[in-house]
Amino acid sequence: MNCVSLRNFIIVAILLSVLGYMTYRTTQQSPLVWPDQDWIVFTCAPSADDGDIYRMLPDGSEITQLTNSSDDEAYPRWASKTGWIYFWNGYASGPNIRRMRFDGTHTEDFWSDTFPNGFNVSPSGNFAVFSKHTRHAGIDIYLLEMKNGDPITFTPLTNSVADGGGNWSPVFSPDEEWIAYISTQDGNQEIYLMRGDGSEKTRLTKTDEDEWSLAWSPDGKWIIFSSGELTEANIFRINILTHEIQPLVIWEGLQDWPIWSPDGEWIIFSSSEDPQSKPSQLYKMHLDGSGVQELTNMNCSAGQPQWISAHVAESATVEPTN
Fold first, then answer.
1. Residue 317 falls inside a structural domain
2. Phi and psi (nearest 5°) for 317?
3. Total of domains in the chain
4. Does residue 144 share a domain with residue 92?
5. Residue range of the domain that includes 20
6. For 163-214, how does the pLDDT look when each residue is reduced to its tens digit (9 = 90+)?
7. Which residue has the higher pLDDT, 222 or 2?
8. 99 in Cβ contact with 84 (< 8 Å)
9. Are residues 8 and 78 in the same domain?
10. Cβ neighbours, 10 Å, residue 261
């Protein structure tokens, strides 16, 4: 073989290697499917242990079922910069956190052994936080670091034995610097903050009621939440700098699962006048209580909404104080 032929052979071999690698990457990675308009994904459950995930437009139209399984599929979480929806897959023996694209395609296993409503994915998709039962029968929060969408390390952020209470429902701030979560270390369920590494833990609420269902405002200045009992609760927001609490939804019955729209103009939440006999439905309204719209009218209880945006917003940064 002369030098020219050898050189051509090497070039062809390199090109084939590159082509083979790109083909492998294409077949091994789910393609990014990005929405061309905003959607709301949510769970609708006919019973406590049976649910599926749906999506609809922000005006309540075009309701479409995304999952259909005998497992309880719930708690969708949107990683706004990667295009994945992560969701809980019930008390499965294998992975009980899965993920899919916004249109319900390319579903795959992700993580195992998490507490219900106990996980959240950062907007960048580089981190996840989740709650799990520990060997001491407590509930604690762990940080999961990811690379290219795959988990690589996880680190405990709380210690329920030392704290004297369980810790769960962690939610990343828009800038991923802070984590809001629920803890019972002071008796009832209160809202706490900590850094992404578990430091600078701060108690936000000091009420006689239980708090739950946390969500950050897009500007990172407020946390919206439910407060009350499982059959009678309302929706409030708390300023993370001043700790001022403001009521947002004071209705009869149970108001739950509040979230903000990406532009901060709307809140979406579930509501039922009598959760013992009537399924909850999703509503949308302005922060001042105007523009109330009923988005769903289904035979199953609708809740746990997440707003999927067609645009990736820049994250706000706020430094809370004690």
1. no
2. -125, 130
3. 2
4. yes
5. 1-30
6. 889 999 999 999 999 999 999 998 899 999 999 999 999 999 999 999 999 9
7. 222
8. yes
9. no
10. 17
